[in-house]
TrEMBL record, chain A:
Domain ABC transporter residues, every copy: 4-233
GO MF: ATP binding; ATP hydrolysis activity
Family assignment from sequence similarity: Belongs to the ABC transporter superfamily. Drug exporter-1 (DrugE1) (TC 3.A.1.105) family.
Upper taxonomic lineage: Archaea, Thermoproteota, Thermoprotei, Sulfolobales, Sulfolobaceae
Keyword flag Transport: yes
Species, as recorded: Candidatus Aramenus sulfurataquae
Keywords from the UniProt entry: ATP-binding, Nucleotide-binding, Transport
PROSITE patterns (UniProt xref): ABC_TRANSPORTER_2
Source domain of life: Archaea
Protein name: Daunorubicin resistance ABC transporter ATP-binding subunit DrrA
TrEMBL record, chain B:
Top-level lineage group: Archaea
Protein name listed in UniProt: ABC transporter
Alphabetic keyword roster: Membrane, Transmembrane, Transmembrane helix
Primary localisation category: membrane
Compartments, as annotated in UniProt: Membrane
Residue ranges of domain ABC transmembrane type-2 in the record: 21-251
Length: 316, 255
């Protein structure tokens, strides 16, 4: 059974197409990732799937209901976690939970709230102001709030952005745990390759509003992966190699079956005097992204200012 | 259905009661008015006060006026608080739940109006301490609070309507500048309209602040209220809140 089916889901702001006819289907119980650079359309997609924004075209069935026709029914059956942790810092953890319960129409919420706080190990701090919580505790409180209405699906928008390496790893464990223990489908967005790789059953790679590949991390790596030798050039050179060479912004990205075996051959072809720096990328989702788009995730970092300027213009 | 509104309304109240700064403002603002502005006519011959203000104590005259004017500022605070929720993402948190947008609007408006009422007892006690004699009965107090609550709701709605689409901190200040000062000075809150030019009188005659100030004076000083004023305030507040509900439901965006 499917938790989410997106059909030609599209969002336009004036002439700017933020999300462009995307299609995907998420099975119940999956951890599904939308992987892409900032500004690829991930948050806009979540906004449409959670009923916050109406799609311009297309529709999605979330927890059995159309986001276009029955957004309220969708909202009753989902949980949502922001990237920056949004709580009322002036209120206690318990008061935050209470408001959430009332807004989500949860009857007998107290028992469930206590059970959730216990599960996340923050029960003893329930009467402390949320503003006094550490980042990790805030995340846990926010997840408790998202689970309060026993949702079928939890949406997590960049759940580990801004976290240090250790907290990020424990967040990954937590997401896996709640996925299992509360049998909740998870749709998360991320621009971290290793996050999608280690956490998700399946992912869709999204770039410039379009889904360019979908599958399990293993499948994608096998199909589009392969090692990539990345060379920063001192000056422009013509390279003749029996491999696929992508030239972009003074960088060469050479797709090879095995980086270790091909590196000498590549060095000879390029000429070591022309090389400023060299990097071997072993097959990963990052190399999948390079293969599919020609650019690496970091370089596709989107010009956020330009994006918001466009949206503002479109809204006017 | 009321659960959502009351949860959001209680949040507004808790945020006000727990803020030290809010208390400092709520207490100091009316007292500043009474002491500084109220003293400006203290050396005026009592005969002049009697003919011009129909009272021998100017503080008694401006007490209901200032309370009415303070409800204008309450409107500004509701719209600022809504903008804060937009900027910190809290509105998004609320709107991914099955909560209608009008509940968010109504909670801000009622929260703001309630916050404004906290000033009334402080002002009354301060005035008594300054030697003003007031006609305090359950009825006069109830009418005073009701009229203040009605204009509070009306102006909080008006402010929120005017700033519903923006998330700019500065918008409420601009609106305040364009609304508060003209409405304050074109009302009978601070001075009677006896010497107003005709155009200012015309504005004063439709200005809800005038109605609330006059009604307050009537119940607190003469004890003989004109009930039509209360009707006028009720119409103003109901029209504004309906307008606001419709507009908020259509235009309120999470960010």
């Amino acid at each position: 059974m499917s938790s989410i089916i997106a059909k030609d889901l599209t969002k336009k702001y004036g002439d700017f197409v933020a999300v462009d006819h995307i299609n995907f289907e998420i099975e119940k119980g999956e951890i599904y990732g939308l992987l892409g650079p900032n500004g690829a359309g991930k948050t806009t997609t979540i906004n449409m799937l959670t009923g916050l924004t109406l799609p311009t075209e297309g529709d999605a069935i979330v927890a059995g209901y159309s986001v276009r026709k029955q957004p309220l029914e969708v909202k009753r059956r989902i949980g949502w976690i922001s990237s920056e942790v949004i709580l009322d810092d002036e209120l206690t953890a318990w008061e935050n939970l209470e408001i959430q319960a009332k807004l989500q129409e949860v009857k007998d919420w107290k028992e469930r709230a206590l059970q959730l706080l216990d599960y996340f190990g923050i029960k003893e701090f329930k009467d402390r102001k949320a503003g006094k919580f550490s980042t990790g505790m805030r995340k846990k409180l926010e997840i408790s709030m998202a689970l309060l209405n026993s949702p079928e699906i939890i949406f997590m928008d960049e759940p580990t952005i801004g976290l240090d390496v250790n907290t990020r790893a424990s967040m990954w464990n937590l997401i896996k745990q709640i996925n299992k223990d509360y049998s909740v489908t998870v749709l998360l967005t991320t621009h971290y390759m290793e996050e999608a790789d280690s956490l998700c059953n399946r992912i869709s790679i999204i770039n410039k509003g379009k889904i360019i590949a979908t599958g399990s991390p293993e499948f994608l790596k096998e199909k589009y992966g392969g090692d990539v030798i990345e060379i920063e050039l001192k000056k422009d050179v013509d390279v003749k190699l029996p491999y696929e060479v992508i030239k972009k912004d003074g960088k060469l990205r050479i797709k090879v079956p095995s980086a270790e075996n091909a590196v000498l051959e590549v060095l000879n072809a390029v000429g070591s005097q022309n090389i400023k720096s060299l990097r071997l990328n072993k097959s990963s989702l990052d190399t999948v992204f390079i293969t599919l788009t020609g650019g690496s995730l970091e370089e596709e970092e989107f010009d956020a200012r330009r994006f918001y300027a466009m949206i503002r213009r479109a809204r006017r | 259905m009321m659960e959502k509104f009351s949860a959001l309304y209680l949040r507004e109240m808790k945020r006000v009661y727990r803020s030290v700064y809010m208390w400092i403002m709520l207490v100091s603002q009316p007292i500043m008015w009474l002491i500084f502005f109220g003293s400006s006519f203290s050396q005026v011959p009592s005969q002049f006060l009697e003919t011009f203000f129909h009272t021998t104590n100017y503080i008694a005259f401006i007490l209901p006026g200032e309370l009415s004017v303070s409800m204008l500022f309450v409107g500004m605070f509701s719209s600022m608080s809504l903008i804060q929720d937009k900027r910190f993402g809290y509105l998004k948190r609320v709107l991914v739940t099955p909560t209608p947008k009008y509940d968010v609007f109504l909670a801000k408006v009622f929260g703001g109006a309630t916050r404004g009422l906290i000033q009334a007892p402080i002002m009354i006690v301060a005035s008594l301490a300054l030697g003003v004699s007031l006609n305090l009965s359950p009825l006069s107090i109830a009418v005073l609070f009701l009229s203040l609550f009605l204009i509070g709701i009306g102006f909080a709605s008006l402010y929120s309507i005017l700033t519903i689409k923006t998330s700019d901190w500065q918008a409420p200040g601009v609106v305040a500048n364009l609304i508060n000062l003209p409405l304050m000075f074109s009302s009978t809150a601070l001075f009677p309209k006896t010497f107003f030019p005709d155009w200012l009188k015309a504005i004063s005659d439709v200005n809800p602040i005038s109605y609330s100030a006059e009604l307050g004076r009537e119940v607190l000083l003469s004890g003989d209220p004109n009930w039509a004023y209360l009707g006028y305030l009720a119409i103003f507040s109901v029209v504004m809140i309906i307008l606001g509900t419709v507009i908020a439901n259509k235009e309120l965006q999470p960010e």
